[in-house]
């Protein structure tokens, strides 16, 4: 089975969380990752499968008596929704929430990571992320149709996590829905000169083998993301 998005970047004891979909915290616990160690949450766009795990995550942090502030970076359109949830009491954190607007070329930096957002093509306000950790780099596209902006912003990265909702048989449907095929992801990876392509956000209609074959014929160093997959940078 494939769960909804939930990507944790762990640097020392700190966790940087990307797109906490439903059941995100359950998978974190199964992977031995504590919500109390989450320093920043990045939400790439306002579709529910990419952020509806956040309320439960914040509630768990509150019940665990979290004291440290939490940074949440999200598109302005989604930020307004989150602010409403806080104001109405639907989410009741007992620690500081630092809500920040995610826009094109927004940069988040601390002493361990640098994260830059860039626009992608998904029909709504949506962003990809370029992450630098020391001398290592990765890119995460979020949801997007094939885009030259991904090539430009992810050139030469160590890992490219690219959405691959469909195989190329469904390329027309992919274009209509502003998504990518596995073949699209492979072509982007080739143009960008990345080292490893990770196929992600795959429709339940496709098997891992189908999406892998679709990409592998163009870009050999490809893997298919699975639940609780661990990659070292």
Note down, in words, how this protein is organized.
- The protein contains seven helices and twelve strands.
- With 233 residues, the protein is an alpha/beta fold.
- It has two domains: 1-102, Ribonuclease Z/Hydroxyacylglutathione hydrolase-like (Metallo-beta-lactamase, Chain A, 4-Layer Sandwich), CATH 3.60.15.10; 105-226, Ribonuclease Z/Hydroxyacylglutathione hydrolase-like (Metallo-beta-lactamase, Chain A, 4-Layer Sandwich).
- Strands 6-7-8-9-10-11-12 form a seven-stranded mixed β-sheet. A five-stranded mixed β-sheet has the order 1-2-3-4-5.
- Helix 2 links the parallel strand 3 and strand 4.
- Helix 6 runs parallel beside helix 7.
- The chain is globular.
Cα gyration radius (Å): 17 Å
Mean pLDDT: 95
Helix content: 25-40%
Segments where pLDDT lies below 50 for 5+ residues? none
The biggest sheet, with number of strands, parallel, antiparallel or mixed sense and barrel status, is: 7 strands, mixed
**Oligomer description:** single chain
What number of structural domains do the residues give? 2
Kindly name the structural category.
Answer: alpha/beta
Beta-strand content estimate: 25-35%
Widest sheet: strand order? Answer: 6-7-8-9-10-11-12
